Amino acid sequence: MTEINSAATLTQDGDVAIITLNSPPVNALSAKVREGLFEGFKAAIASPAKSIVLICEGRTFIAGADITEFGGAMAGPSLFDVQAMMENAPKPVIAAIHGTALGGGLEVALCAHYRVAVPSARVGLPEVALGLLPGAGGTQRLPRIVGVEAALDMVTSGRHVPAKQALAMGLVDELAQEGKLKEAAVAFANKAVAEGKPLVKVRENNARLEAAKGHPEIFADFRKANARKFRGFAAPEANIKCIEAAVNSATFEDGLKAERKLFGELMGGAQSAAQRYYFFAERQANKIPDVPDDTPIRPIKKVGIIGAGTMGGGIAMNFANVGIAVVIVEQEQAPLDRGLATIRNNYERSRTAKPEETEQRVALITGSLSMEEAFKDVDLVIEAVFERMDVKKSIFERLDAICKPGAILATNTSGLNIDETASVTKRPQDVIGLHFFSPANVMKLLEIVRADHTAKDVIATSMKLAKQIGKIAVLVGVTPGFVGNRILGQRQREAQKLVMEGAMPWDIDRVLYDFGFPMGPFAMSDLAGLDIGWVKETSHGETIRDVLCEADRRGQKTGAGYYDYDENRNARPSAFTEKVIHDFIVKTGANPRKISDEEILERCIYPMINEGAKILEEGKAIRPSDVDLVWVNGYGWPVYRGGPMHYGDQVGPEKVLAKMREFQATMGDAFKPSALLEKLVADGKKFSDIKA
Ligand code: CAA
């Protein structure tokens, strides 16, 4: 065995040279790995071996470029040098893939002459999720193998293609038996030599591109079909342009040049910086400073849920999806039956579960009218009833009496004080908040709320369980509205105030939509229903909402709310609403004024950043990036703007502070700057300088 460097070794198995990479955790293409590959291939080519296998140790084949290197100067051989060396090798090069061959990893594998993979492997070009495009020839080689349509899908979705599908697409040449990858790759290499198989250079394979030449409609149709999904993002369009360049360029090299140029533009842009930041934010969130990785986990085999409404049912589906049994308790048979029927209906309508999976999942969810009966053996109970402290307390008293020792007692409250709920039990260490977002079977965010006495293993178990059910979990502290709703409160307040100063709901919605939110607060209210929490009997036209509801404008469901709706639920600004607003303003004795889009944005967004800073200052979130995860995954903050705290850094904390001071001077202490923001600016620092 020859050690090439600390990341690569070269061994020989008969006539086959084997280059093995070992650079934990994911064999990313760091300078060391590139050097190992470059020198490894040089040595293997110079050796008497007749063929070369590239394989990786650890959990995965190369998972891509080393993202931590982005933005800095690249040392050592470039990826292009490595690829040229592989592609031009005078003997067969076989990439042996397990785990994931992603991004630069797949781009390396595409420079091998052949690819062998185990069935559990997945391949893909996920750069789009980092606001990038595959910058090492991926957009030029991929369509040469899989064709233009499949390439467009892969580069713009970033999806990981399972090995079996990759085989059918021609991305992989042979599947190996699980656990026998090296043997299979060596056998393939020997066979390639024995049979004199050609040294396939993907770059020379133009047949699939020729088929797409003269068909610009392929791209036009693809753009049109995905316009909504790609709105606001720069990377999908750049990826499409690269595939277009593959089809329309005179040579492979010309296509590569186009790819390079667009890659450079994305890499230097704010969107990719935000999306790369987001990638690490997701991973950071799992790290809880005082809850070490080896904290014991409580086994969760059966979950109890109180409440068969939309929330309880949605929560139940998460667990059934991963094979965990659930029992839902309701007070009466009719709502229980309705809830269970809705769950079945949701599964049947969803295109993700096959019919037999639906049956398995539905069978895992049972109902009961008796907490005493249903909850005596559950490992976790989640209470999902309406938001009243007295109700929550009486439930927790009963749970304390019923549940076995060590069971986790969770509440799905969206803002009530969990310390207070825990105080009625004799086991506050077992009480935690699990704040799901509606619809709970779809939304990715889970705010895990740590109360004063919550035990560390309860936190560790909840974080792990969240991962198991596919959620992005963020640990937060007890504070009214927790992190998400507390920050939302700032935006809602300003949106309402702006209306009373003369901005129309559709002006505010447009500004926030253009910023990248899926919809603005007023369109959102119309969707949810203006009458949530509105009581007809006690409504006396005291607010704009009262007047709208009294006029039976209760949102989309009644065909009118803040907006008017046509029969296809397309919204139009409403003269009625405009008059209601105008009358209210006149009543207050104020004069409506013209409000700029800039002011709308700053008034809505900067107080959110400031509130995030207050939350951090109070220790209710561990780190700024956790606040950002909450807003990206729970409230539709565009990921290409990172989240409120990252955006605050992009704008500049000094600018946010200056505006908050200005607003405070004219509009009062709702805009009082947080002490943390003041300190950051005084120290010349940014939110990203705060480390947990
Ligand atoms: N660069 C640097 N670090 C990386 C990395 C990368 N490409 N991919 C993963 N890591 C790190 C993670 O930050 C994490 O570090 P910590 O343990 O310190 O938090 C560790 O590796 C393990 O990662 P995960 O927790 O995500 O592990 P997983 O098993 O759940 O998932 C994975 C593994 C599927 C490979 C996932 O990490 C992933 O999707 N990685 C990114 C893949 C990617 O986007 N590749 C393209 C890179 S861009 C590119 O290649 C450009 C180009 O064209 C040249």
Please give a structural write-up.
It is a single chain. This protein is an alpha/beta fold and 692 residues long. The protein folds into 3 domains: 2-266, Alpha-Beta Complex (2-enoyl-CoA Hydratase, Chain A, domain 1), CATH 3.90.226; 302-478, Rossmann fold (3-Layer(aba) Sandwich), CATH 3.40.50; 503-588, N-(1-d-carboxylethyl)-l-norvaline Dehydrogenase, domain 2 (Orthogonal Bundle), CATH 1.10.1040.10. 48% of the residues lie in helices and 13% in strands. It has 29 helices and 20 strands. The strands form 4 sheets. Strands 13-12-11-14-15-16-17-18 form an 8-stranded mixed beta sheet, sandwiched between helices. Strands 1-2-3-4-5-7-10 form a 7-stranded mixed beta sheet, sandwiched between helices. A hairpin with a 5-residue loop joins strand 19 and strand 20. It is globular, with a radius of gyration of 29 Å. The two termini are 43 Å apart.
Spell out the key features of this protein:
692 residues; alpha/beta; 2-enoyl-CoA Hydratase, Chain A, domain 1; Rossmann fold; N-(1-d-carboxylethyl)-l-norvaline Dehydrogenase, domain 2; eight-stranded mixed beta sheet; seven-stranded mixed beta sheet; 20 strands; globular; binds acetoacetyl-coenzyme A
What's the short version?
With 692 residues, this protein is α/β, with parallel strands linked by helices.
Q: What's the mean pLDDT score?
A: 96
Instruction: Give the spatial strand order of the biggest sheet.
Output: 13-12-11-14-15-16-17-18
Largest sheet: 8 strands, mixed
- Structural class given helices, strands, pairing? alpha/beta
Proportion of β residues?
Answer: 5-15%
How many beta-strand elements? 20
